[in-house]
Specification:
By secondary structure, the protein is mainly beta. The chain has one domain. 0% of the residues lie in helices and 52% in strands. It is built from no helices and 25 strands. Strands 1, 2, 5, 8, 11, 12, 15, 16, 19, 21, 23 and 25 form a twelve-stranded parallel sheet that branches. Strands 3-6-9-13-17-20-22-24 form an eight-stranded parallel sheet, with no helix packed on it. A five-stranded parallel sheet has the order 4-7-10-14-18, with no helix packed on it. It is globular, with a radius of gyration of 17 Å. The termini are far apart. 50% of the residues are buried.
């Protein structure tokens, strides 16, 4: 299912919106999809009460070669068993400035803000972990260059089985940052268990808001500047 689709050709699938509520979905979902060279930018994929089966991945926007920038995926009260990408490029290009928001639900497969399989950048992506249970790897960017990716962690998000990556390679982690608490300092991270399975490839950690007297346990931590 696609909000906008260019099949086996070059072109653009921009500014589309897909909204699904209270359904079970098999197969791929994408706000915008271009099978050739072009752009799949500024698309939105919004799911509420959705059971997403393993077969077929989910994308805010995806393109074979070109740009998948500025897309947004928002998920609430859903069970997600497939991979999820804010923006994805199958060959060369950019997957920058995408946003993935997990409000509530269960997430059992990899989640990526921006993905470029060939040469390119997946930078300035944002992942918001607000609620739900994450039992998979969550990556800000996967590309030859993936910097300045941001994670915002607050609310009741259960990350005890989550593996968080600023980027996939760890070669250059410039600007990759985890923020605990909302930027307005009004909402802290308040899970049942203050634990994260793994944290990799972040330059900085910032505490905007925190619940006093709690210790956050990270079972595996590497390539982290502080």
């Amino acid at each position: 299912m696609y909000g906008g689709y260019v099949e086996y050709s070059d072109g653009s699938a921009n500014n589309n919106k897909v909204v699904l509520e209270n359904v079970t979905v098999g197969g791929s979902l994408s706000g915008g999809n271009v099978a050739g060279i072009g752009s799949a930018n500024n698309n939105s994929l919004i799911l509420k009460g959705v059971n997403k089966e393993t077969i077929g991945n989910m994308f805010g926007g995806t393109v074979y070669e070109g740009t998948a920038d500025g897309n947004t995926v928002t998920i609430e009260d859903s069970t997600i068993n497939s991979q999820l990408f804010g923006g994805a490029v199958i060959s060369d290009g950019t997957a920058n400035n995408n946003t993935v928001v997990l409000k509530s639900g269960t997430f059992a497969n990899d989640i990526v803000g921006g993905f470029v399989l060939g040469d390119g950048t997946a930078s300035n992506n944002t992942v918001i972990l607000q609620g739900g249970t994450v039992k998979a790897a969550v990556k800000g960017g996967v590309a030859t260059t993936a910097i300045n990716n941001k994670f915002h962690i607050y609310g009741t998000a259960d990350l005890s089985a989550a593996k968080l990556y600023g980027n996939d390679s760890g070669t250059d982690i410039t600007g990759n940052t985890i923020y605990f608490g909302t930027e307005d300092q009004k909402t802290a991270w308040t899970p049942v268990t203050y634990s994260i399975a793994e944290v990799h490839n972040f330059e900085k950690t910032v505490f905007n808001a925190a619940k006093w007297g709690q210790t956050i346990t990270v079972n595996t931590l590497d390539n982290h500047s502080g």
